Amino acid sequence: MANQVDKNAKKPNIFVRMGRRLKETFSELKRVTWPTFPKVVKGTCVVLVVVVVFLVVVTGINYGLQALLEVITNIGA
Known about the structure:
- About 85% of the residues lie in helices and about 0% in strands.
- It is elongated, with a radius of gyration of 30 Å.
- The longest helix has about 40 residues, at about 35-75.
- The chain has helices at about 1-10, 15-30, 35-75.
């Protein structure tokens, strides 16, 4: 008999469910510990330095392979 009642129970409409999820989301965001501004700046600088290092490495590899390709193609000519 209990299963019959559960099957006939209607789910709340979409707006009620979305409201519950939004409420849960905002309550979770209140518990988040956000980084301080100096930590954000330091993290951003670290990311930028790593990107520049990879840029230099990939550019160097590209230049080296291009020079090697020119040497190989000039030998056959």
